[in-house]
Amino acid sequence: MGFKRVLIANRGEIALRILRALRDMGIEVAIIHGKEDRLSLPVRLSDFAYPNYKSNPLDSYLNIEDVITAAKELQCDAIHPGYGFLAENAAFVARCAEEGITFIGPSAEVITLLGDKIEARAAMEAAGLPTAKGSSEPISSAAVASTLATEIGYPVIIKAAAGGGGIGMQIVSKSDEFENALKLCQSRAKSAFGDERVFVEKYIQGAQHIEFQVLADGKTAIHFGERFCSIQRRHQKLVEEGPWLDEKTRAEIGELVCRGAESVGYKGLATFEFLRDAKGDFYFLEVNPRVQVEHTVTELITGYNLVELGIRVAQGEKLPLTQEDIVIRGHAIQCRINAEDPKDFIPSPGRLWECHFPSGFGVRCDTHAYPGYEMPGCFDSLLAKLLVWGRDREDAISRMKTALDETIITGVEHLIPLHRRIMDEEDFANRNITIQYIEMHSDLLG
Ligand code: ADP
Fold first, then answer.
1. 229 and 375, same domain (yes or no)
2. 290 is catalytic
3. For 360-375, what is the mean pLDDT?
């Protein structure tokens, strides 16, 4: 049965992105929002808005019972969580189920499984995915960690089982570093995630970050190819593009991720993240069980509306397309235009006095910004996602330069100068990029 009305439990560009998909599908749009967002585009354009003002602005979007109450009062059949906030909160998904409200995403059980990196690694290894050598259980003793590291070879990385956003990760290259590194990772994990379990994994040198877009209906999964997201700062992506792999490798890894998704009964959109080493070997990192910021890259090269497809499988539809329907055409690049200082990535909130985004052939801009918009400092700093499509990578890079030059934002600092320099940089042009790219090109920070 199709949804009549859906509550968006999110804000910013992704709330607008979801609103547009719902409108395209003839579904009414409801939204819950904080005080800072009362004049935002997704709130103004929605059919029904539920103000939820709190002294801590994050609570407007994070309080489970408030979101459930909003959905019930506004008579919504379903809730779209977007990314961040409650998107990966199994307790929230379980509450939706109790109230008979559809959560647009996978089940609470699947979210719990995938939210634990140790369990997710084990499940995906069992489904045949390649993982980096490492511990299959939490590690709390430096002696145990050191024995394991000798077995798998240094350097290794200590990561939080409940991890996200690169928080707490420690690279260890000698045995005597374990004592401190373990403690540090455990305490960061405890304060960020309330769970101090950590595990050890082989550190992949010279790695590239490559991820696969998947859609599944609970039984069958298909993939939409890969995105290359190695240009990162503090383990967070700045530039994403695709395609990146040859057809044979795409088919091979694509087949594996689909089996992985099917093995856990996955339903909805998912991203399977991997590192690839200099030899070309892949290592599974994690599954993100939700729509991702960079899903837009895949939309441009496949022509499919991924947000709409995610909503359709949540409505109970079977996959409306098969693997053979997915054909990749041309090349797409996305630059994240964050309101941040391009020298040190410090957030730069404030009012946008001028704000003009580019358009034209092969250009897409997903943004909730407009002239006069007050960019709040209490949420993440993503202001706009600027995307271009080109016949090939070279064509896309040229178009991205034109588009960046056409963008005018005054009032806040932003990353356009950095992106413009990246587009001109030789290693970028030659696809000579690893996850250390920004560190290795610190001159680009100006
Ligand atoms: P999170 O969920 O905290 O974002 P991930 O496991 O997805 O953590 O890793 C995020 C980033 O951390 C990767 O893109 C990579 O830059 C780095 N990283 C994680 N694991 C490894 C590893 N085994 N070797 C090298 N780098 C890693």
1. yes
2. yes
3. 98
